[in-house]
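Troubleshooting entry. Yesterday's outputs looked truncated, so today I'm pasting the complete records for two proteins to confirm everything comes through intact. If either block looks cut off, that's the bug. Protein one:
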Amino acid sequence: MRTQQEMFDLILGVAEKDERIRAVYMNGSRTNPNAPKDIFQDYDIVYVVRQNKPFYEDKSWIDRFGERLYMQCPDEVDRWNGLPTDFDACYGWLIQFKDGNRMDLHVVPCEKADVRSDKLCVILLDKDGILPAIDAPTDRDYWVQKPSEPEFWACCNEFWWCLNNLAKALWRKELLAVHQSFYGLCQPQLIKMLDWKAGNDNGFCISTGKASKYLNRYLPETVWNRLLETFIGADLEKAWDSAFALCELFDDIACELSEKWGYRYNTEEAHASYGFLKHVRTLPQDAKNIF
């Protein structure tokens, strides 16, 4: 596996030798001082070029970066799916190399280069001085933000309402619908609530990362273990218990934060929704009425 220095030498060497490439910048986990360093970190590279078209029309130029295991061109995939695309504004290659390294490489024309919108950006090369000076990278833009009271209400209402879908999917024994309702609708609201707790406990100056992957760093061990108890598999009977654990954890954290922030929490709605879930579990499979 090529070292970080070898990869940087290659990335910059390609740019220096290609007259069409005028600048290079990087963002992502490798520029984040708070991200753990490991062998799976991508090289998120942007080449600032005169024109995108020569690069996406003749893709053989990327062969110089090394032998590929497989690759995706996300803009091509978007076009295949009928989504609006503009290859001349931005075009990318997501490359997994055979040596284990991965590079997410994009080209943008000079007039589209943007190093200020992401505070994790680092300028690696600027042949013509076309990029503005920027501060040292920080993950400040990704810090958990304290929600407004309406945002808090929205999270709570979404969680307790979507529990209805989970209840009927569990009763119907529709495993795929159970997973969709659980992981697609209900649990994301719990994770949002736990992110807010982590932010509150740490002065709202931390990032839990993409998909809240660093959340376990900032939660008390007891809360983290309770979150783990909410995950479900293929056993639908156990899934009921996980759903109950989900509700109890959400309710506890929502109550805690509402008290700390002086926000109103609709406990009547929460108790009604949770009560409905418990009631549905008691219904026999040949039930003719819900109540």
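Protein two, checking that the full record survives here as well:
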Amino acid sequence: MKEEFLHYVWKFQKFIKNELKSGSGETIVVINQGVYNTNSGPDFLNSRIKIGEMEWVGNVEIHVRASDWEKHRHSGDSAYENVILHVVYENDTPVKRKDGAIIPSLSLKGLIEGQLITSYEQLVLNDAIIPCEGEFERVNELTRFSMLEGSLISRLYRKAKFVEELWLKNNADWEETIFQVLCQAYGFKLNSEPFLKLARMVTFKRVAKTRNQMLSLEALLFGAAGWLEDIESPDEYISQLIHQYNFLQHKFQLPENMISKSEWKLLRLRPANFPTIRLAQLAAFLAQNESLFSRIIYCKDLEELKKLFSTPQSDYWRKHYLIEKKASKEIPAMGVSSKSILMINTIVSLLFAYGIQKDNEDYKQKALLFLSQLKPEKNNITKKWEGLNWKAKNAFESQGQIELLNNYCKAKKCLDCKIGNEILSNCN
């Protein structure tokens, strides 16, 4: 028996309520179970319970065993003085307040339908990544979409919080913050950390001073990223990069060995996705867009956004995937799916974060609109949902599916999921 399961049982009153009796034999009538408390303190607040002839208003605390009250050190905590009912599975000991008065208790053992317990165990104890896969097709489509939408919004708020933290570290400088979010996104999943580290070290102010000369901009990025170290016989282009970076390093007073080549990950990446190619594409983007803030925050529509990421990398990086490593065929500009992921992880996240910071719903709604217009991601997670006949129609849905699986399914948080709740509700 798990405490979170008892929370679910009490929250939705999933137990036999005829002739409830307290541990001391008094009749109990639940008028209102209270509001579930996700913060510290008692589990349910502002409950209304009739015990014997007296109606009480206060809080309800829930444990598997009554003795857990002492184990959790509630007896000396003033936050629990207003508990009017102690709901437990096993009432193994009476619990008292500071003044010695016994807190009324209700044991749920024998009051919960066996099928409900079995269904709960089947959900949280099976080995499937999606615990409800056997019951999923029976779940109402409105329930699915409601959970999907809620998961997406949670994902956007979590990403917005990260953006806000960067913004505060950058002394409320949106240009610098947008630059860092953009760089992190260019690293995609595998190289996001070294790309963000690079952005923090290089800074957008330095980039802005070199953006008018592509060679200088590339030298700054590739040099600070460590890719110009230990080159034995550089060709003319690489020699120019090294020479220019040495000049910029002195000019901007950049430390040596800012990032090591060993920090970049290449394993299992196609050459077109190598961090060197992404750096070259980032340089092309920065060279074409002077004010990141106005181009991103005030963008009008999705087509305008797509153009931002359509500039191909410079000639050398269309023919080389690493320094002095020629490609067998020309490396194209960023593909459609990669641009879509970039827009999801930069434009959408930034618009939503900016809308929160400015308390302006228009920016948040624009972020959601763009998601609904972008094609869905195709990855291992979306394939799992597709295998349950739930194919994402757009990025709004695929982002929600990713969040749902990562934050609910993998964590077996079925009791916090509307889909899991519906499955359990069908047991009665």
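Both blocks look complete. Sanity check on protein two: The two ends are 19 Å apart (CA to CA).
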